[in-house]
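anyone seen this seq b4? input:
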Amino acid sequence: MNAHDLRDRALDLAFAAGWGAINRLPERLAAAGFRAAADVAVRRESKGVRRLRVNLRRVVGPQCPEPEFDALIKSAMRSYCR
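predicted toks r here
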């Protein structure tokens, strides 16, 4: 097994462990955690959020006011994380 395979296996195990832990949480608590993660990603303007902004701007057009567009981004990220 090479280093790339080991890394992939470690990521798979970490992902499985994370989902296992989340499945044991009450649904409301898990949902709140994912909402918070989405909000953090939006605030930090992660690479994925920047890509989402570009794509959604193409869909809604330049006439969408910035406050409304920001709310759309937040809602889209929360939906994605859900």
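The mean pLDDT is 90. The longest helix spans residues 3-24. kinda curious what u guys think
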